[in-house]
Design brief:
single chain; 555 residues; alpha/beta; 7-stranded mixed β-sheet; 13 helices; elongated; RNA-binding
Length: 555
RNA sequence: AGGGUUAUCGCCAAGCGGUAAGGCACAGGAUUUUGAUUCCUGCAUUCGAAGGUUCGAAUCCUUCUAGCCCUGCCA
């Protein structure tokens, strides 16, 4: 991985910290909560954290921020590790925030002893009322001035399970009139009698994000704690916790704008809804922007990394055009994916001057961009299939594929000229009759005349039936009639289109799930991991050849 | 009594007082046995707005405007 990167403000900070010897080595972390699958938005954070550490010869920890037992599951812990590895990154240490619960508990008691934390018995509603609003200061809790001894005793009782959920919390004693709402005596610990995926029933009190995360970073000696913009107002509290808990290391929190992409749902809540309501196949449905969905669709780790490095890092909230991802995917796959011929809507072609029952084999490159991929031999005979799109009885102005009287090349084979069109009772072309010119065989060096187009074809007898799946964005956010509708009602009902078609046997001889192909004119495809069987290959279209080639007649 | 933060081409994004990089998209043209790729060419006299400082301003100052985030016992 030698991705070029845009220079960014975080690199500048790190360079200075290294130059001034504030740090001799940087340590970053990627800290997901295991409450869902990773999506492409996380990829930006992963590439940043791991990429920066790699660039400056530092280290990166993968740390599960598992401080809320009700939302977290081992399934997610597992998938997150797989996805990070798939993206191509290796962590220095694999850690769980929950492994620090003992230390955090001790630090909470330290704050109590310093008179900086207290046990509060306000109900959630009262708490909200006492907090004030964006424009008005809050009021002190009546429990704010308890003695250190009483607080210590009550906190101990919270921990030992003496109180029900929601009855008490531990709060920091800071400033109920702060303009920064995070400073209005934020909650440090809450009671939650739930089984935790890692610590089981050992604890019934759990630390809140602001308290836990800063301690986690400090404990691990994280030098640069990179997170998204919404935590900017939490930074003063982050610094407060590190200082007042008398931590040895002082990490620095740096915020950047999260990734937004056109035609892409990034909200974990909404993605979970799609899975729970069975709108999609699961977290790895090829339409999902999850890393597992993109993987199943056929996107490569390289393409995602290149996107992340190329879009840069800044603090302005922005929306990246999904066409950029497609660009990096095409760029990556063009020399890697073998080029084959597939027909989605077949039109029968009979070469009237070709001998009956004769079969010859034509040799064709597996990838014109990569000679190392070799060649293969395709059977060629009198009856072929071409793409319906590649023939027009009455050609439009700039159409230069097959039409009556016109000559084109069959890729890897001969020039053919259309002479006759056989139509059904509705007037649709169902078969065309052509003649071929034996002089024009591919590779023969024929230069007598040129054709404007080369089209793809299949030997009718040898064509292998298979299935092609095409995808459209799950959301059509540009339609006005969708404004204000419930999320599930905005979903594009035609986001999946399944077509039967044919493919050449030779190209897909040893195809297995996750193999990528490029089909002439149809774009890049991936062998589906779920629906492909020994009897039938199922291909997911990853991207068309070009965005303007977007299918309009596949449905 | 609000606080934080952002604003440079259709979309990302460099730039940090010396006269607007790059990528995507788009549009022309050349090559092409994928209408792909590749290759040229074009694409911000202007940096949210208005004032000011300066020989010189996207960069400094002042005022204004707009967007995003914050009132979970989520992270």
């Amino acid at each position: 991985m030698d991705n070029k990167t845009q220079s960014n403000f975080i690199q500048a900070i790190i360079e200075e910290d290294l130059a001034t010897h504030k740090h001799e080595q940087i340590i970053t972390r990627f800290p997901p909560e295991p409450n869902g699958y990773l999506h492409i938005g996380h990829a930006k954070s992963i590439c940043l954290n791991f990429g920066l550490a790699k660039e400056f010869h530092g280290k990166t920890n993968l740390r599960f921020d598992d401080t809320n037992p009700v939302k977290e599951e081992d399934e997610f812990v597992k998938s997150i590790q797989e996805d990070v590895k798939w993206l191509g990154f290796t962590w220095d240490q694999l850690l769980f925030a929950s492994d620090y619960f003992d230390t955090m508990y001790e630090k909470a008691k330290l704050l109590i002893r310093k008179g900086l934390a207290y046990v509060c018995e306000l109900t959630p509603d009262e708490m909200r009322e006492y907090r004030g609003t964006l424009n008005e200061p809050g009021r002190n809790s009546p429990y704010r001035d308890r003695s250190v001894e009483e607080n210590l005793e009550l906190f101990e009782k919270m921990k030992s399970g003496a109180f029900p959920d929601g009855s008490r919390v531990l709060r920091a004693k800071i400033d109920m009139s702060s303009p920064n709402i995070n400073f209005r005596d934020p909650i440090l610990y809450r009671i939650s009698h739930n089984t935790h995926h890692n610590t089981g029933d050992k604890w019934c009190i759990y630390p809140m994000y602001d308290f836990a995360h800063s301690l986690e970073d400090a404990i691990e000696g994280i030098t640069h704690s990179i997170c998204t913009l919404e935590f900017e107002d939490h930074r003063p509290l982050y610094d407060w916790v590190v200082k007042e808990c008398e931590m040895e290391h002082t990490p620095r929190q740096i915020e950047f704008a999260r990734l937004n992409m056109t035609n892409t749902v990034m909200s974990k809540r909404k993605l979970k809804l799609l899975v729970d309501e069975k709108v999609v196949d699961g977290w790895d449905d090829p339409r999902m922007p999850t890393l597992s969905g993109l993987r199943r669709r056929g996107y490569t780790p390289e393409s995602i990394r290149n996107l992340c490095f190329e879009i840069g890092v800044a603090k302005a909230s922005s929306v990246v055009d999904s066409q950029m991802l497609d660009y990096f995917l095409r760029e990556d796959l063009l020399p890697k994916a073998p080029l084959g011929m597939a027909i989605i809507k077949p039109l029968k072609v009979v070469i009237t001057n070709y001998p009956e029952n004769e079969v010859e084999y034509v040799e064709i490159e597996n990838n014109p961009k990569n000679e190392d991929m070799g060649t293969r031999k395709l059977p060629f005979s009198k009856e072929l299939y071409i793409e319906q799109e590649d023939f027009m009885e009455v050609p439009s102005k700039k159409y230069f594929r097959l039409f009556p009287g016109n000559e084109v090349r069959l890729k890897g084979a001969y020039f053919i000229k259309c002479n006759d069109v056989i139509k059904d009772s509705d007037g649709n072309a169902i078969e065309i009759h052509v003649t071929y010119d034996p002089e024009t065989k591919s590779g023969s060096g024929f230069t007598g005349r040129k054709v404007k187009s080369t089209i793809h074809w299949l030997n009718a007898k040898e064509a292998l039936p298979c299935e092609f799946r095409f995808f459209e964005p799950l959301i059509e956010d540009d339609k006005e009639e969708n404004q204000g509708k419930h999320f599930l009602e905005q979903i594009n009902p035609n986001s999946l289109c399944i077509k039967s078609g044919y493919i050449e046997r030779e190209a897909v001889k040893n195809a297995k799930p996750l193999d990528k192909f490029q089909f002439v004119r149809h774009g890049f495809f991936n062998v589906d991991t779920k629906y492909t069987t020994p009897e039938k290959l199922v291909f997911n279209q990853i991207v068309p050849l070009k965005s303007s080639f977007k299918v309009n007649n596949y449905s």
